[in-house]
Amino acid sequence: MSQQPTTRIDTHFIAAGKYHDIDYPQLEIPKLLAEHPHIRATVAADYSGLERLDQCRFLITYTCDLMPAFDQAAQLRTLMEKGGRWMTVLILLIRDNDKGRIDCKALGQCRGHYEVPGMADFYLHNEMCACNYDVYYDPLRRTIHLAMRDGD
Which end of the chain is less congested by CB atoms within 10 angstroms, N or C? Predict the structure, then answer.
């Protein structure tokens, strides 16, 4: 069994938005984080309460059509400037930013039957995209491991 770090690592997870099955990542991402007992996570449905980032080593977001306000963007920038990491599940991108890093993995979003109100009251085809495959979780796990690392 691998040795667990003795240092607590805090993270914050934001999952919200339109036209996607937000319930699925709200379940799956915390399960991946729970593989590391030293990670303590909070979960939010918007960008409010970002003062929480003062204690966090990394942020995870799964959002669609949700943007931070100007002051919230400043809090996100502060996380990056202090060497924090930001993992998004929307875009495939890795970008170093000052001391921080943004790791984005867009291997597919989920869409359930009830995710497109106003366009279709009942969406016929559940779309699980890459979430149907175990291999989808490998890059997510690797990104969590990278996010846990301290300042390299």
Answer: N
